[in-house]
Amino acid sequence: MDYPNKDQRWVFHEKTEAQETAPGVVRRVLAYCDNVMCVENTFKKGSIGAMHNHPHTQITYVASGKFEFTIDGEVHTVSKGDTLLKQDGVMHGCTCLEDGILIDIFTPMREDFL
């Protein structure tokens, strides 16, 4: 299968596809290869990142906004500059408390996002 942006050294934001993944949540797949993927998620206040798990390790960087995150039953409020680690198979999800952007890094890449 041919994936957009795969193995590209330069990925320009204005050329990425925005996908609404839930009410108030927009995903953009940025640079990636087989081993790692960078994804931007833009949230509106009140939107939900439903509880889920997957066989990928995920690091989330809070670029802006405020979120209530649950990871493996533990709940914390996070804001700009905070980082979260979600190892493969761990249940996690969030509620957006203030409009914001999350940057997710996955290993390996998420084929299901393409």
Describe the protein's architecture and organization:
The chain is an all-beta fold. It has one domain (13-113): Jelly Rolls. Helices cover 0% and strands 58% of the residues. It is built from no helices and eight strands. The protein has strands at residues 18-22, 25-32, 37-43, 48-52, 57-71, 74-79, 83-86, 92-107. Strands 1, 2, 3, 4, 5, 6, 7 and 8 form an eight-stranded antiparallel β-sheet that branches. It is globular.
Predict the CATH topology. Answer: Jelly Rolls
Note the gap between the termini: 10 Å
Strand content: over 45%
Instruction: Report the uncertain regions.
Output: none
- Supply the CATH architecture: Sandwich
The total of beta strands comes to 8
* SSE ordering: EEEEEEEE
Helix-strand category: mainly beta
Silhouette: globular
Q: How would you name the CATH homologous superfamily? A: Jelly Rolls
Total number of helical segments? 0
Q: Could you outline the blueprint of secondary structure elements for this entry?
A:
Layout (H helix, E strand, L loop, with lengths): L17 E5 L2 E8 L4 E7 L4 E5 L4 E15 L2 E6 L3 E4 L5 E16 L7
Antiparallel strand pairs: 1-2, 2-3, 3-8, 4-8, 5-6, 5-7, 5-8
Give a quick summary of the entry.
The protein is mainly β and 114 residues long.
Throw out a few tags for this protein.
eight-stranded antiparallel sheet; mainly beta; 114 residues; single chain; Jelly Rolls; 0% helix; 8 strands; globular
